[in-house]
Structures are given as C-alpha cells and as structure tokens.
Design goal:
The structure holds 2 protein chains of 2 kinds. Chain A is mainly α. Chain A has 14 helices and 2 strands. Chain A has one domain: ABC transporter involved in vitamin B12 uptake, BtuC, CATH 1.10.3470. In chain A, helix 2 runs antiparallel to helix 10, helix 3 crosses helix 10 and helix 12 packs antiparallel against helix 14. Chain A is globular and about 65 Å long. By secondary structure, chain B is an alpha/beta fold. In chain B, about 35% of the residues lie in helices and about 25% in strands. In chain B, strands 6-7-8-3-9-10 form a 6-stranded mixed sheet, with helices on both faces. In chain B, strands 16-19-20-13-21-22 form a 6-stranded mixed sheet, sandwiched between helices. In chain B, strands 2-1-4-5 form a 4-stranded antiparallel sheet, covered by helices on one side. The N terminus of chain B is likely disordered. The chains are: A mainly alpha, B alpha/beta. Chains A and B meet through helix 8 and helix 9 of A and helix 3 and helix 4 of B.
Chain lengths: ~300, ~525
C-alpha cells in the first residue's frame, strides 16, 4: 500500500492536496458573495447558481468539446441567474434573503431539468498543471496537480483586495454597501451598483460551478454540489468580507472536505461518513465562534441585512 | 486640479430663489418662498420642524424639483436637477445626519465625492494633494483615521472639509450643531463665519437654535408653514421678534410651576455599572448615581457617550457586565414582574422602535404594559378587547394623541404623537421611577411644552425622574440636579441653582480618565 510509505505524512499531504483541489469552488463562490455583500445585498441563491454553472459548463463542453468555453458559459449562466435576483430585489419591500432561497431552489431545479441529457456523455476535462514534477513521491505529485482555475482564483482574490481599496469601482461598491445615505448624498445610483455587484458575484459563482463538473469531481450529476454554495456564504462571514481571507478560509474548508478521503487512503475507513460531514461541522463551529450575543459583526458592510 | 487655490480665488455665487412653491399631494410644503443670498453672507434659515426649511434647500440642491419658481445663480436662471449639478455649480450641503462611509478612512471619504474620480486611484499623488489641501484649511484631520473612530465634532468638520475639498463655495449646513458640545459648535460656526467674512464662502445655516442665529448669522429668513414669516438683518431683530415669527400668534402651555423639591426616599441606586456596546467595547464605565422621589435628575452629554447603552440597560434591553442596579432597596433584574411592582416607566429615544410594536394598533400599544393583567386580561388568558379599546379612547383624549382612531397602526402617527402615546401608556397610572431619553427630539414647540409639562407634573407627584438628553437647554429647564456624562462616566454634578452653561459644556467635552 503506497500510503504506508509516508505514514501520517501521507494524510497531511493528501489533505493539503485535497484542500487545493476542493477549495476552488468555495473560493469562487465566496469571492462572488463578497462582491455582492460589499454592495449591501446577500445572495443566498449562489448554491443554485453554482449548480446551474456546473450543468451549463458541462453541457457546453460536451457539445463543443471546449472545456474553457464551458467555463465562460457557466459564468454567463451564473450572471444571468443573479441578474434575476438583483432585479427582483430592486423592487420595493423585497427581502433579499427570501429571494435568494427562491433562486437557490429555482437554480438547482432548472439545472436538473436541463441537465438530464448530460448525465451520461463525458465532457473533456480542464487540463492540469503538474507542479509536483520535482518530487519522486506519487502522493506529492498528485497533491500538486493544480488546476489553472485555482491559480486564477488566487490571483483574483489578491486583485479584488487591491481593487476594493484602489479603484473607483471599489470605493463606490463599498460606499453603497456601507451607507445608503452617503451613497445617495454623493449621487450614486444605489440600485445600479447593487445589480452590477450581484451579477459579477453570480458570474464568479457560475465559474466555480464549472470547476465542479469539468475538473473535480469532473462529472455532471444531481448530487454534484453538496451545499458548497451555501457554505461559501457562511465562509464569507468567517472571512470578514476580505477577499484574501476568503482564500485562506476556502483552503480550510477544502481541507476539511478532503479529510475523509485522505484518512481512507491510509486505510482508516471507519467513520468515513462522519469525516465527510467535517465541512458542515466546521461551518457550524465557525459561525458559533464568530458570533456573539453582545458584539455586532466586525467588518460587516453596514447595509447588509444580516448585520442590521 | 488644485482645489485650495480655487477656493481662495473664485467668489461664491449669488444665490437667488424666487417664488418657489413645492407641493406634496394636497400639502403645500413651500408657498412662494423667495430668498436672496449675497456672496460671503452667513444666512440663517429659522423655523420649527415641518416649516419647510429642509424642503427649500432640497429644491436648491436638486433633490426636489420645485413646482413653481426659479433658482438664479449670479443672476442667471439655472436648472439644478441632481446633487451632481449642484456640486458642479459650487453648491454643497452638509447634512444633519452624517453621510460619511463609516468603514472608510478620512482620505477615502474626501475623494469619494469627486465628480471625475479616475478608475484607478493613484494614492500617492492624491495624498500629496490632500495634505496640501488640509494645510490650507482652518481645521485639520489625520487622513488615515477611520470614520468610526471620529467623534461627532470631527465628523462634522470632515463633512465641511469634504464640501470645501469638492470646491463648494456655497455651503448649506443642516442643523450642524445638534450632536456637538457647545464648544465644538462655537468653534465650527466661528470658523465658517470667518471663511464667509473673508468672502471665500457663503453659508446657509438651518437651525432652530436662536442663540446660534444671533451669534453667527448676518441675515435671517424665518419660515412658518411653508411661507416666509419674516426676513431681515439679524442685528435689527430681537429674540422675541424671531420667536414670534417662528410660532405665530399661538400660545402654548407653560411649564407647570414646580412644587418644592421633594428629594424624598431613594428609589433607584446604580453602583459601579459597566456596560458594553455592540462592538464589545465598554460604553458605560463604573457609573454610579442615586435617584430620589420628587426630583428630576438630568444627565447631559454629547450623544454616543454611553447614554443609549445606559438607558437600554435600565430598560432591560441590554445586560451589564459589572455593577448593580438597586430599586427600592432590592437588586433589580429587569423582569416584567419587577418593573410592574416597582412602577418603573420608560420613554426611550426613538420610541417607535424602542417602546412600540410598529404594526400594532394604538390601542394595543397602549396596553403593552398591562394587557396580561385585569381588567384587560380576563382570567389571565382572554383579552377583553372592548376594555382595551375603551381605555385607549380615554388615554387618547387625555393625552391629546392625534390619530385616526385607536385601531390605527402606531407607525402611521407622527413623531410627536408616538411620543404622546408612549407617555400616555407610561403615565396612565401611578409611577415611581420615570426614565426619559431625548423626549422632545424633533418635536414642534407646542408638543415640546406639553411633554415637558407632563414630566414636571410626574415629578411634582413624587415620581423620581431620570432625564437623559442631548439638549442642554432642556436639561437646564427641567432638572433639579444635573449630571454630565462623558465616555461612559459621570464626570460632573451640580445642583440646578449653581448650573453654569460654560462649565457644563467643558465637562461634556472632557475625556474620561
């Protein structure tokens, strides 16, 4: 058994590798949700957007044979679904949380309906970058097989962190999300900024979905996402609306998801399903840890409904 | 573009509004109002709440569009349809509620309003420009401080700096001093007057504080019910002229003569109270006080010094981290039973949010204290709606609440009437302790007089009254003893007879520890 060579190190390497492999959808969805929430709105429907992105990306890749075109289509599908959310929320007296839940159900339902023909055919996968060529160990090699989307996500996190501070768009987005009064007095169109923030967030979540179907696990079926989109929303709160911290938090969640398979690889198969629940436990634990009956959430955009 | 030299060289525009009329449905908010502001003048706009002051400046700033009348800048008719248009014309508004973005720095807030902000901001060049701008200003602020760490006075200064930075040479200040200490208010208004006298800016000051108008303004326009009820040079008018213009011929109830100070038994003792705010930072720190029957104890202080957290703690909305509250000699844990037994009554700030259920009717809100007691509750289970309604009708007439009826949702009432409703509920039976916070905030003079009279009445009947207010005049008028709260502590105490405005103001501005 190969895992035996490295012993417990094998578990650590497998968890790290798993973290990198599993974290990408978390990263894209949480970056998208950060953008949306920075504009002062919560889009809980990103789970539906993620699944829709996975389906449309896979379908496009099956039909055209171009996985990267699939990624683009997935992003556009996500942007379109989020546009629905954004437009409905622009109406007076509409609650963004309720609309988000409706979008979640609508998005997954629509994806299952349209995605039936794509369950059997197999689509070309997104290519790997082999960053583990220097190592003789197959575990290390497999852990460092990294997808380009992961690197794009990492760069995007750094870029968003920079852009929120150093660009006009970043400042306007934060203003609208933090104080409607200030934004109004400055003459910014709050509705338009929020629509753009939500649509951009949806695009990223859609891209995150295409990673699920086109790279890892790399198939399309109805059980593809196990709540990653919803967990990513919780992750944004834990990351305090900071793109770079979203990256770290995504790695932690990815690592937790990879725990079960990693232990299995060294022969620990007992409680496999219990370890599989690790990300859900982690979500609960982090939310309890980061909330307090006496303190308001630090760093929360002032206009987001969860912080009001 | 170098803002500071521009501020020095270009004179403010002459602003003339003629025959401005604005209707909202059936209500005429402004009726043929004309006003003329020469460059470099300091013009006060005086009037009660609802007189049309804000509507008039909103018509000028492009927030509203006047139905009739015109706006002339330097004699030319000008269409101002948005805040952006106003900014381009050099008109800037400093709002009563701060319009700064709380999570951002001073520097970020300053550049946010720029009309042609570049897509990517070159912070190094910007900061150089900002520093040069600051150096030329009569007051300075550190560019890197976060807004959430600024005091109210500093925020007000930043609002003004922002307008000057954006090139506004005609500033509208909307009740700028409502959250400032008297010293801060004097400082800021003094600086604005100096800039105006130097011909660098013109100022419209919206206010209902006669003292400020007398001390700083050259000219005054008084509005009443949407019409100009008086206009002229401040030097030519007496204070009573201006009051007459503001309130018209109406007379209103004077404060009840107070019976001799009771100072009987102690009802409320607070010892070493510490309370955290929403961020977990200590808001009330080691606060102790005693409240006896038949006295009004006034707590003065600039808002945000722990008053809200203190009242919330007394009200049972927030828990203390240390210290004790003793009511009639017994530790008080804020249960409904104890509140009823000790007859503790409360009129918190923003009563619609803090003491009412918005969607419920006036009658239901009036019954919130005792709907679970006979006669309203039958057998402790069933509500006797007829009894509830009958009592509501009685209270509505006695406290002169203006409502469509006892069944109207309370959120449809005006601010003064919500205030009256809560006061009616709290004072409908015998009270031992009455806690009131900013009871007259935003009310017209008649409502103010009536509510103050009820508070003094309660005191004369032997109630121990704790009055927490940001309005120093109110504290001075009503209190038997005056305490000053700053940074969560009581920093000063004086009996009413020895109270000195300047001294109290100094203590309001002082920093704890």
């Amino acid at each position: 058994m190969e895992g035996g060579d490295l012993g417990w190190w094998g578990v650590v390497i497998a968890v790290i590798g798993g973290a990198i492999r599993v974290s990408t959808p978390y990263l894209f969805v949480s970056l998208g949700e950060t953008l949306t929430e920075k504009s002062g709105r919560v889009n809980l429907g990103l789970e539906g957007v993620l699944v829709m992105g996975a389906m449309s990306g896979y379908g496009t890749a099956v039909i055209t044979g171009e996985p990267w075109l699939g990624v683009l289509v997935a992003g556009c599908a996500g942007a379109f679904l989020s546009l629905i959310h954004a437009l409905i929320c622009t109406l007076p007296r509409v609650n963004d949380i309720a609309v988000g839940i409706a979008l979640f159900i609508f998005g997954t339902g629509l994806a299952f309906f349209l995605g039936k023909p794509f369950i059997n055919p197999s689509a070309p996968r997104l290519p790997d970058l082999d960053l583990g060529w220097w190592s003789a160990s197959p575990q290390v090699q497999s852990a460092l097989q990294i997808n380009l989307l992961f690197l794009i996500g990492f760069t995007l996190a750094l870029f968003l962190a920079w852009a929120l501070k150093n660009t006009r768009w970043g400042l306007v987005l934060r203003t609208v999300g933090d104080s409607e009064e200030a934004a109004g007095a400055l003459g910014y169109n709050i509705a338009v900024v929020r629509i753009l923030g939500t649509v951009a967030g949806g695009f990223l979540a859609g891209v995150g979905g295409s990673y699920l179907s086109l790279y890892f696990p790399g198939t399309w079926n109805e059980g593809l996402s196990s709540g990653q989109g919803l967990m990513a929303v919780a992750l944004v709160i834990f990351a305090r609306w900071d793109p770079v911290r979203c990256f770290y938090a995504s790695l932690v969640f990815g690592g937790a998801t990879a725990l079960g398979p990693a232990l299995q690889s060294v022969g620990i198969t007992a409680n496999y399903y219990l370890y599989g629940a690790a990300p859900y436990f982690l979500t609960l634990a982090l939310l309890i840890y980061s909330s307090s009956p006496r303190k308001a959430l630090e760093g929360a955009p002032g206009e987001v409904s969860i912080s009001r | 573009m170098n803002m500071m030299s521009e501020l020095g060289m270009i004179a403010p525009p002459r602003v003339t509004m003629t025959g401005v009329t604005k209707r909202f449905g059936a209500l005429t908010a402004l009726d043929a109002v004309s006003i003329d502001i020469a460059p470099g003048s300091f013009h006060a706009l005086l009037g009660e709440n609802g007189a049309g002051k804000s509507t008039l400046v909103k018509c000028l700033m492009g927030t509203y569009r006047a139905d009739e009348g015109q706006v002339l800048l330097d004699g030319r008719e000008t269409q101002i349809n948005s805040t952006r248009d106003a900014q381009k014309a050099g008109l800037g508004m400093v709002y009563q509620h701060f319009t700064l973005v709380p999570s951002m720095s001073v520097a970020e807030n300053l550049i946010l309003g720029e009309a042609d902000l570049p897509a990517v901001i070159d912070w190094r060049a910007r900061r150089k420009l900002l520093r040069a701008f600051m150096a030329d200003m009569p007051f300075q602020l550190d560019l890197d401080r976060a807004i959430s760490n600024l005091s109210a006075g500093e925020k007000q200064k930043l609002e003004i700096l922002k307008q000057l930075y954006l090139g506004s040479r005609f500033l509208v200040l909307d009740e700028p001093t409502s959250v400032l200490t008297p010293d801060e208010a004097d400082q800021i208004l003094g600086l604005m007057r100096d800039l105006a006298q130097a011909g660098r800016i013109s100022v419209i000051l919206i206010s209902h504080k006669l003292r400020e108008v007398e001390s700083y303004a050259d000219e005054v326009t008084v509005l009443r019910q949407g019409r100009v009820s008086g206009q002229g040079r401040v030097a030519d008018l007496t204070r009573s002229d201006m009051v007459q213009m503001m309130v018209g011929e109406d007379t209103f109830a004077k404060s009840e003569a107070r019976s001799t100070s009771g100072s009987g038994s102690t009802h409320l003792t607070v010892r070493g109270l510490c309370v955290d705010d929403d961020k977990g930072v200590a808001a009330v720190r080691d606060l102790s006080l005693e409240l006896r029957s038949g006295e009004i104890v006034g707590i003065a202080g600039v808002s945000g010094n722990g008053q809200t957290e203190f009242v919330e703690t007394l009200a049972g909305q927030r828990n203390e981290t240390a210290g004790e509250i003793i009511v009639d000699g017994v530790p008080y844990s804020k249960t409904r039973k104890e509140i009823r037994a000790a007859r503790i009554k409360l009129l918190p700030e923003a009563p619609l949010d803090n003491a009412c259920v918005r969607g419920m009717s006036v009658a239901q809100n009036l019954a919130l204290r005792d709907f679970d007691q006979p006669p309203v509750a039958k057998g402790g289970v069933w509500l006797d709606k007829a009894a509830m309604r009958a009592r509501a009708v009685d209270l509505i007439t006695r406290f002169r609440v203006k409502t469509q009826g006892p069944d109207a949702p309370i959120e449809t009432l005006s601010g003064g009437n919500v205030q009256r409703t809560v006061l009616a509920r709290e004072l409908s039976d015998k009270s031992n302790i009455l806690i009131v916070q900013n009871p007259c905030f935003g009310l017209d003079l008649k409502a103010v007089a009536e509510i103050r009279r009820r508070i003094v009445d309660a005191r004369n009947d032997g109630t121990a009254v704790l009055l927490i207010s940001e309005d120093l005049d109110e504290i001075l008028e009503l209190s038997d003893r005056i305490l000053v709260m700053s940074e969560g502590q009581i920093v000063f105490e004086t009996p009413r007879e020895d109270a000195d405005l300047q001294e109290i103001g100094r203590h309001m501005a002082q920093h704890g520890d």
